[in-house]
Target: chorismate mutase
Amino acid sequence: MNDATLDQLAEIRHEIDRIDEAMHLLLMERGAVIDRLVAVKRTSETGSAFRPGREAEMMRRLAARHQGRLPLATAEHLWRTIIATFTHVQAPFTLHVEQGADALAMHDLARFHVGFDVPLSGCSTASRVVEAVGRSTGDLGLVRLDAAPAVAWWETLGGDGPQIMARLPFFSGGEGPIAVPALVVARPLGSAGALETRVWAVSDDGDVELGSEHETLAAVTRNARRARLVATKGDAPPSPGAVLVGGYARA
Ligand SMILES: O=C(O)C(=O)C[C@]1(C(=O)O)C=C[C@@H](O)C=C1
Model:
């Protein structure tokens, strides 16, 4: 390399150092703001700092302003890691991850969304994930969205117990690196839940047709009884007797 090229390289690296330092300073400043947030938010009352509606709003804005060389998925992963880390800083929690058929993909999905500060705990089935979340104060669960699972694991959700709080991947265009579909389960979060799409447990003897505005996420038929997990856009239940088991925001 000649002197002019070396000068240019040094200048560019100086620029990178300046940007890195600014980002680091801003992240530390963000940490100080979180200290103030803890005092205002009274997270200890619910045991969880997780606010899925707020996170969805932040992710939408991130995607809207995103451009340039950095892949959107990398920007999403960085911010998910920052947000999950600060969620954990506010109120420590464990993420219980279903380790069934797609154990490796589920592990990737978990780390993509929470980074490495949040501890993971493996569960053999979706039902075990729900049980672990139910026993905890503010833990989260990650269940693989299998369209035809062995059991209707969602039937214990709802009421005062764990509920569905998010659907992943958030940007479901299929271009992201983490393609395994999954649901996030948490204990009730009051108004912090994002119910843009509601999720219902529907049980019938197999002859109830649902309108095309409803999306069947999963279904199990056993002993002439069909159990379905159904997502709806509006507030109304997809059929009489449907039980609300949570909701989520979409990109
Ligand atoms: O806005 C909040 O309530 C926060 O706790 C902050 C924050 C964040 O780090 O931006 C962290 C956790 C929530 O899930 C959403 C956002």
